[in-house]
Amino acid sequence: MTVQTLREFFMWCSIINFSLLMITFAMCAFAADWIYKMHSKWFSISRVAFNTILYSFLGIFKVLVLVLNIVPWIALSLIA
Q1: DSSP code, position 45
Q2: How far is residue 72's CA from residue 44's CA, in Å, rounded to a whole number?
Q3: CA distances from 34 to 3, 26, 55, 69 (A)
């Protein structure tokens, strides 16, 4: 596997994961009530706990996308 192949792999991983992050954020911003109603049917959870879990998930997902996708792509781009 060449550096060019790895760089393209991490580039596409970054694009896909960042797109998923933006879609999730948009859904949470514009359809938060609908998402809460759907999940509260399945689980007994308060709105405060739901918001805490949701924003924690978004934060962790953002950090993982940065660390596991964007940083390796930048590093490979610098050495290429």
Answers
A1: -
A2: 40
A3: 44, 13, 16, 31
**∠ at Cα 56 (12, 21), nearest 5°?**
25
Where does residue 42 rank: exposed (0-12), middle (13-18), buried (19+ CB within 10 A)? Answer: exposed
- Cα→Cα distances 64→17, 20, 52, 58, 71, Å: 10, 13, 18, 10, 10
Q: What is the pLDDT of residues 34-58, one digit of tens each?
A: 999 999 999 999 999 999 999 999 9
Is 63 strand, coil or helix? helix
